[in-house]
Each structure stands twice: as C-alpha cells, then as structure tokens.
Amino acid sequence: MNELSFAVVGAASNQAELIYVWEQATPEAKAIIVCLFVFSVIAWSTMFYKAAQMRRARRLNHYFNEEFRAQKAVMDIFDRKLQVEGCPLYEVYQAGCAQLDARLRGPGGERRKQAVSLKNMEHVKRAIENIVAQESLKLESGLILLAIAVSGSPFLGLLGTVWGVMSAFGGVAQQGTATLAAMAPGVAAALITTVAGLLVAIPSMFGYNWLVHNLRVFTVGLDNFAQELVSKMETEFLEEE
Fold this sequence. Notes:
84% helix, 7 helices
C-alpha cells in the first residue's frame, strides 16, 4: 500500500514538474514546442501512411508476381485486361506491354505482327525504365517530411534552449541576484525545448531509415522484374537478324 502511494505521488509530482516547466517557458519556447508538436504529428502520420503503402504494395507485388510466372506468354495478362491498381509490378508490366502492343500493331492499329525490330524493342525498354523510375519516385514521395523532421527538430530544440538560457541569464542580470532559485526555473524551461526536439527527431530517424531500406528493396525488385520482362519480350517478339 505504501509503495502504491509513493508511485501515485511520484507520478503526480512528475506531472506537476512538467506543468511548472511549461508555465515558466518563454513565449518563444512555447511557440517552438508547438512547432515541434506539429512536426511530430506530421512525422508519425507519414511513417504510418508510408508503412501501410509499402505493405500493400508488397502484398500486391507478391500476388501479381505469382500470376505473371504462371502465364504461358508474356502478354497473356495484358490480353486478359487484368487490373491490379496500386501494384508497382503491374504498372511496369502494363506500360511495357502497352508499348510493345503498339509497336506490334503499327500506327494504323492493324493486326498484331509476330515480331518487332531491335529499334522498336529499344523504345519498349525505355518505356519500362521510365515507369520503373516513376514508381520508385511514387514510393519515395513523403520521405522528405521525415528527413526534415530528423534534421530540423534538434536544431529547433537547440534554438529554444539557447534562447531560453539567454532570457534566464538576462532576467538574473536585471534582478542582480545569481541564486539557484532565480536561475533554475528559466534554465529548466529552456531545456524542455531540446527534449521536445529529440522526442521528434529520434522516432523520425528510426522510421526514416526503415522506410529507406524498404524503398531500396522495392527499387531493386522493380529493376529485376523489368529486366526479366524485357528478356521475355525479346525472346518472344524480337526479330532475328
């Protein structure tokens, strides 16, 4: 019972300390903490959104890759007009097959030919490379917000701390008394901005590194799939010299 009482008193004391430090903070420090809170909301929202996006893309890529390997001809899925929205591998496949189909049919949309020239196959390759780059950029979008949170939050916190310490020493100089009781509240209030900055930057750093790693894995997977797709297209449709 005594231990529970001490725990409750300790929690209330810590809460009271935070409230006291917040009340002692300067308006500039409070404004910086509010900015850091907004940064934190944006960073966590971005991490959850990108994690969900990559998880969905990974699942769709797995299903589409199984379907792609099960087909007999490279354009079977394209001819069936299968739609897989939000799947990066499907977007690469669809763009490549659409370009190849256009080269096989010619400008008049006539019946599909049996083979294409090396020059036309190069156009197909460039279309596939272009869509791979676009899909990589689509997956990468939003990471700049985490990078800003990682690099900017500690400096905002440091700015608040330096500003708060400057204000505390200025107040002490005006009072003419350099006692601990006069300096401690201002210094404590100044340090809270550094704590807030680190609380934003540390989770953002871990989330950013994890997302960048997954993005690299996705990019390598897209490149490998694109090369495999081009290889199969050349095997089936490239004219022999």
